[in-house]
Amino acid sequence: MPAIPTRLRLTPEDKAALTEYWRFFEPIADEINAELRDSLLQLPEWAPIIKGMTEEQLAVQNKASLDRQRQAIVDGNWAPYLEDTRVQGTQYARAGVSFVAWYDIIAIYREAIRRRLAALGHKDPARAAMVSDGMGRWIDIAMSHLGEAYLDAKERIITQQQEAIRELSVPVLQVRDRLLILPLVGIVDSVRARQLIENLLAAIRDHRAKGIVIDLTGVPIVDTAVANHLLQATDAARLMGADVVITGISSAMAQTLTGLGAQLPQAQTVVDLQEGLEVIERMLGYR
Question: What is the largest CA-CA distance in the chain?
Fold first, then answer.
C-alpha cells in the first residue's frame, strides 16, 4: 500500500471514520454532484465556471475526482488527490475566485450530506455519527491543502503586481539617442528610491545614455530623505558616465531644503522640464 504523506497524520479512528464516510458517500456521489452543480449555478463566482464546461467535461471531471478520492480513502494513496487539490487551489486563485467562495461549496455540500444522514440517524445513530466525523475529517484535509496552495498563489500574484507597479512608478523614458527622462510622481520612499536607482542604471546601460533629466514636478514632498536619494542616483549615474539635470524644484521646495540643510546632488537644477531638456541637449552637443 502506498505511504501516506508525512504531513497527513491519520489516527486509526480517523481512518475508520473516513472509510465509513466513503461507504455512505460513494453510492450517492452522482446525485450529490448534480445537486452541487445546480446550487453553484446560482452563485455569481461559480456560475461562469460551471457554465463554461460541457456536460461531458463535468462528467469526466467528477469521475476523475471520485477515482482520486477512492485511491486516497480505500487504497491509502493520498498523493494524487492532494496534488489535484493543490492544483485546484492555484488555478482558482489565478482565476480570481475568492477563498470565501470555497466555503459556499462546503456549506452546500454539508447540507446535502446532512439531509441524507438524517434518515440514517434514526436507524443507526452510531454509524451516522461516524459518517459525520469522517466527512468533517475529509473536509479538513481538503481545505487545508487547497487553502495552502491558494494563499501561496495569491502571494505570488501580489508580489508580481507590486513589482509591476514599482516598474510603472519609476519609468525611464528615452527621448532621443543617449538622452533619458525620469519623471517622478508621488512619494519617494526607500523602496521606491532603490527601484529608481536600479531602473536608472539599467536604462543608462541599455541605452548607453550620456544625459539624464530627473523631473520632480510630480513629487509633493522633497525633504532630506528625498535629497539623499537623489544624491545617490546622481552619483551612480555619473559613475556610469552620464550627466544629470534636475527639474521641477519649486521655490517652496528650495526653501525647505535650504532650511533643512539638505545635501544636494552635484547636478544642474532648472525650473521646468522644457528648460531641463534644452540644458541637457546643449551639454550633449545637440544644440
Answer: 97
Is the distance from CB of 116 to CB of 28 less than 8 angstroms? yes
172-229 pLDDT, tens digit each: 888 888 899 988 887 777 777 888 888 889 999 999 999 999 998 888 877 777 788 8
**Quick check: helix, strand or coil at residue 45?**
coil
Residues 206 and 68 in one domain: no
Q: Can you spell out the DSSP letters for 246-274? A: EE---HHHHHHHHHHTPPPPSSEEESSHH
Are 21 and 150 within one domain? yes
Kindly report the length of the chain. Answer: 287
Does residue 71 sit in the same domain as residue 210? Answer: no
Cell matching residue 101: 467562495
Considering only CA atoms, give the Rg of the chain: 31
Is 0.70 topped by the overall pTM?
no
Return d(Cα 145, Cα 151) in angstroms, integer. Answer: 10
User: Is 235 exposed, middle or buried, given 0-12, 13-18 or 19+ CB atoms closer than 10 A?
Assistant: middle
With a CB cutoff of 8 Å and minimum separation 6, the contacts of 215 are 181, 182, 183, 184, 246, 247, 248, 273, 276
